Structures are given as C-alpha cells and as structure tokens.
Amino acid sequence: MQVDHVLVDARIATMAPDGDPYGSVADGAAAAVAIAGDRIAWVGPMADLPTGLGAARRTGLDGRWITPGLIDCHTHLVHGGDRAHEFELRLEGASYEELARAGGGILSTVRATRAASEADLLASALPRLDGLIAEGATTVEIKSGYGLSVADEVKMLRVARELGRVRPVTTRTTLLAAHALPPEFADDPEGYIDLCAGPILDAVAAEGLADAVDAFCDRIGFTAAQTARVFTAARARGLAIKLHAEQLSDQGGAALAAGMGALSADHLEYLDEAGAIAMARAGTVAVLLPGAFYFIRETRLPPVDLLRRLGVPIAISTDLNPGSSPLNSPLLAMNMACTLFRLTPAEALAGMTRHAATALGMGGDTGTIAPGRRADLAIWSIERPAELAYRIGFNPLYRRIWGGK
Ligand code: NIG
Ligand code: FE
C-alpha cells in the first residue's frame, strides 16, 4: 500500500452509516487512518494496521478523536456591512419581517454589498471564513444574494470563488439572485424573475461561477411559481438547485424543490407532511438552521420527528449571514440543533458531515472517513464525540487536515 501519512493511536468517528451512530471504529478503541495523497487509503483498528507502511510519516494522537472535517453547507458569508443596528431595533420591538417590509433587512445588506468592491468583500469575508476553518470546517458553501443585479451577483460569486483559492478549504458557490426584490424592480417582480432566470444566470454560467442555484420562497421573498421559473432555467443550464423553504410561512416550497430534484430544502420550520413526503421520495436533504431560529426568535419548530420517521436526511448549518444568523460557529450550530431542535449529538455531527456533504452533492467524496474519500479530517482533544455538540463557546480542535495536508 502506497501511503504518505498514518495517524495512529486515535479514536475514530467515521460517521459512515453503519455501526454505532458515530460509525466508531472498533467501538472507540485505538484506531488509525492512513492517507495517500489527498485520499484516505485505509481506516481501522490499530491491531489491523497493515504492515509495510515503513516509509510513511506517523503521527501519534494520544487517543484524540478524529471525525470527518466539518461541512458548513449553507452560508451567506460574503456581504457588505452588518445589521447590528437592526438587532437593536428588534430589541426595541420590531420584527425581522417588519424590518424587511420597511426596506431594511436583506435590502440594507444589498445597499452595503453594492457599494463594496471585490477587494472589500474579500477582506471582510476572510475573517468569517477563517472562523469556520478554526472550528474544523473543510468544506463551506457560500451564496450570493446581496447583489441582485448582473454585475453585483457576479461580483459576489467571484469573491466566493476567490475565497476557495486563498484558503485551504473546499468552497461550493450558490447563485441566490432570487433572494429579495431589488428596489428598481419594486413594482415588477416578474420582471426581476426574468432577470434572474435569464441575464444573471447566463453571466454566472458563462464564468462558471456557481455550482447551484437557490431562491427564497416566502412571503417576503418569492412565490412558488416564481421559484419554479428560476429553477427551470437553472436546470436547463445543468446547475443543481436548492431552496430557502418554509422559514416564515408554508408556501409549498419544499415539495416544489423536491419535485424538481433539489439537493436540499433549508430552514423548514413551517414544513408540512406533504412537503416532507416529497422530500423523502426525492432524497432531498433537510438543512436545519438553528442559528436563524434562535436569532429571529422563531417559535415554530421544524418537524424533526416527521423527518426522522420518513427517513429524510437532516443536515445542520450555521446559515452565517448578517441579518437572521450572525453565527460564525459550526460547533455552536450543532449545540443549538440539540438544545433547540432536540437532535442527538450524533445526529448533529452527521448533520455537519455526512448529510451536509449530500446536501452539496458531494456525498461520494467527503463527509465520512472511508477508503477513497478525500482526506478531510478534524482531530479533537475530547473524550467522546458528544462533546462537540455539548460545550458552548469552547473549541477543542487540535488539528485539521484538508486534502491530506
Ligand atoms: O437564510 N431567509 C432568507 N435569507 C437568509 C437571511 C438573509 C438576511 O437576513 O440577510 C436566511 O435566513
Ligand atoms: Fe440562508
């Protein structure tokens, strides 16, 4: 076996869907993982470590736990400005929806993002991305959606692509032009959908700037019919689709997205049984975003038991954004998924690894520790994997390996 690096004396939660809920190697006894280039070559108990790995570098881990690198599958981390003032206004009684209707909310971030240069956006996004990496993230999805014009959506996605070139992290970019109605189209929502489904998509596709297309289907976003128009155009260009669905109201968005083959439907507080059944049938991942639930003080819980019963895979993400979820911590998102949504710590970790990979269409490549997968690993100074979701505001990351390095 041609191997470059062997991590030994570890405990390993592969997060593969067999064995205990963590896919633990040998019930948490001493284990090892061998890396060849950017791939995992072998994983198993220390006792079975293949012989003839003489030339490979060996690193002892003193019983630390190795998990797959974390995958944050839903972020808006590229944006201008902040919304701290709206936070103050909400504390004086305004609601998230009221601020949006009064021209604040997403549109206030649109003004700041339009005024920013690519260099400004890159500089402000880097510390946010670094914060995710510092907690073990090896893959991060990044959306546009604060430009809402051809030039400004392209600008955001160029920055998102650039982030993946300047940091050791895999990025996936998503066009979210149908996020809010820009002021110049205030009286012409259908005209704006024409722009999203035509010129914006064409410009983004011409530069290869997006891996997927998203929309915000809600009372303060777009209707299911408008969303379908954007999705049809995306599919025609071979792009994956996903949706902000059922966050503030039930628009049937999840069923629509699932019916069109979406990778994921995200938020889902108002998801009904028909929507969940459609997702189960299509294999659409439910991405739950407890940071947004917490920060805008939602009271309606996503139907977790229903999703479990129907076998819908559940992913967890930060939704890192300036308005509804300024949450720069995958670990805290996992804790919130447990405390607020009553996921188990194992479900939360699967939601930040295996199921998050599926939500990005990367399930065959990352998200579990298995031979042939990318060597994207997080090594933690913990005694049991449940600690990752248990602590609040504590980062036990010891080391992170991205693509074998
Ligand atoms: O995921 N729901 C719509 N989009 C974002 C919020 C964006 C914002 O408020 O700036 C979300 O919650
Ligand atoms: Fe979002």
Automatic annotation (TrEMBL):
Signal peptide: none annotated. Transmembrane segments: none annotated. Zn(2+) binds at H74, H76, H244, D319. It is an enzyme of class 3 (hydrolase). Binds 1 zinc or iron ion per subunit. The keyword Nucleotide-binding does not apply. It catalyses: 4-imidazolone-5-propanoate + H2O = N-formimidoyl-L-glutamate. One of its GO terms (biological process) is L-histidine catabolic process to glutamate and formamide. GO terms for molecular function: imidazolonepropionase activity; iron ion binding; zinc ion binding. Its EC number is 3.5.2.7. InterPro entries: Amidohydro-rel, HutI, Metal-dep_hydrolase_composite, Metal_Hydrolase. One of its GO terms (cellular component) is cytoplasm. Fe(3+) binds at H74, H76, H244, D319. 4-imidazolone-5-propanoate binds at R83, Y146, H179, Q247, S324. It is found in: Cytoplasm. The keyword Cytoplasm applies. It comes from the Bacteria. Pathway: Amino-acid degradation; L-histidine degradation into L-glutamate; N-formimidoyl-L-glutamate from L-histidine: step 3/3. N-formimidoyl-L-glutamate binds at Y146, N321, G323. Its cofactor is Zn(2+); Fe(3+). Keywords: Cytoplasm, Histidine metabolism, Hydrolase, Iron, Metal-binding, Zinc. Belongs to the metallo-dependent hydrolases superfamily. HutI family. Catalyzes the hydrolytic cleavage of the carbon-nitrogen bond in imidazolone-5-propanoate to yield N-formimidoyl-L-glutamate. It is the third step in the universal histidine degradation pathway. This is Imidazolonepropionase. It comes from Stella humosa. The gene is hutI.
